[in-house]
């Protein structure tokens, strides 16, 4: 498995080896030893996954930027198994040197990439094709009262969503505060 580092050291992209022939292809989508080695080699904690989630989205659906507060914070290992998505993680750790910075990566059924997003980051994605299916493993269970959002279009973050036009959003995501508003509320790490 190839591990790609990003401008924020804790955010890693995993590219599995894909073995293909005239019948199709095979890949190992997750290997705990390989994943743990990649994190521990870089001095990061190795998580334990407790829940898998799966979403189906039409082109233009934007989900995010979501996170959960401690003690229910979640790390996520995300991938796309059908379609394409632009996936974004934002550092919301107030004492981090990269606070407010973001990393984006295209995830698709064709590139098989996975994106590791540890707790302390807000996460969101936009479906770039109809029928985009997004899978992710989480390090903590969903906890409604700990759920928070940051505005996808926060001008200070200036995220390039790689999408022309208005995204399709839930009412909750339309009303999400900016990162600085969330920080003022004490809703960051």
From TrEMBL:
<feature type="active site" description="Proton donor">
    <location>
        <position position="136"/>
    </location>
</feature>
<comment type="subunit">
    <text>Homodimer.</text>
</comment>
<dbReference type="InterPro" id="IPR011051">
    <property type="entry name" value="RmlC_Cupin_sf"/>
</dbReference>
<comment type="pathway">
    <text>Carbohydrate biosynthesis; dTDP-L-rhamnose biosynthesis.</text>
</comment>
<protein>
    <recommendedName>
        <fullName>dTDP-4-dehydrorhamnose 3,5-epimerase</fullName>
        <ecNumber>5.1.3.13</ecNumber>
    </recommendedName>
</protein>
<dbReference type="GO" id="GO:0008830">
    <property type="term" value="F:dTDP-4-dehydrorhamnose 3,5-epimerase activity"/>
</dbReference>
<keyword id="KW-0413">Isomerase</keyword>
<comment type="function">
    <text>Catalyzes the epimerization of the C3' and C5'positions of dTDP-6-deoxy-D-xylo-4-hexulose, forming dTDP-6-deoxy-L-lyxo-4-hexulose.</text>
</comment>
<dbReference type="Pfam" id="PF00908">
    <property type="entry name" value="dTDP_sugar_isom"/>
</dbReference>
<dbReference type="GO" id="GO:0019305">
    <property type="term" value="P:dTDP-rhamnose biosynthetic process"/>
</dbReference>
<comment type="similarity">
    <text>Belongs to the dTDP-4-dehydrorhamnose 3,5-epimerase family.</text>
</comment>
<dbReference type="InterPro" id="IPR014710">
    <property type="entry name" value="RmlC-like_jellyroll"/>
</dbReference>
<feature type="active site" description="Proton acceptor">
    <location>
        <position position="66"/>
    </location>
</feature>
<feature type="site" description="Participates in a stacking interaction with the thymidine ring of dTDP-4-oxo-6-deoxyglucose">
    <location>
        <position position="142"/>
    </location>
</feature>
<dbReference type="InterPro" id="IPR000888">
    <property type="entry name" value="RmlC-like"/>
</dbReference>
<dbReference type="GO" id="GO:0005829">
    <property type="term" value="C:cytosol"/>
</dbReference>
<dbReference type="GO" id="GO:0000271">
    <property type="term" value="P:polysaccharide biosynthetic process"/>
</dbReference>
């Amino acid at each position: 498995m190839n591990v790609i580092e990003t401008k924020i050291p804790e955010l890693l992209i995993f590219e599995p080896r894909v073995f293909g022939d005239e019948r199709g292809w095979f890949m190992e989508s997750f290997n705990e030893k390989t994943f743990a080695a990649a994190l521990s080699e870089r001095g990061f904690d190795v998580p334990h996954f407790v829940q898998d989630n799966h979403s189906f989205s039409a082109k233009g659906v934007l989900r995010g930027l979501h996170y959960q507060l401690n003690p229910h914070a979640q790390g996520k290992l995300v991938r796309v198994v059908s379609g394409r998505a632009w996936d974004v993680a934002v550092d919301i750790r107030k004492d981090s040197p990269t606070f407010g910075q973001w990393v984006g990566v295209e995830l698709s059924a064709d590139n098989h990439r996975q994106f590791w997003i540890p707790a302390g980051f807000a996460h969101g994605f936009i479906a770039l094709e109809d029928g985009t299916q997004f899978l992710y493993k989480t390090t903590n269970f969903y906890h409604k009262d700990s759920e928070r959002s940051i505005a996808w279009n926060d001008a200070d973050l200036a995220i390039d969503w790689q999408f022309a036009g208005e995204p399709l959003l839930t009412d909750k995501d339309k009303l999400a505060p900016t990162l600085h508003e969330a920080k003022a509320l004490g809703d960051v790490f």
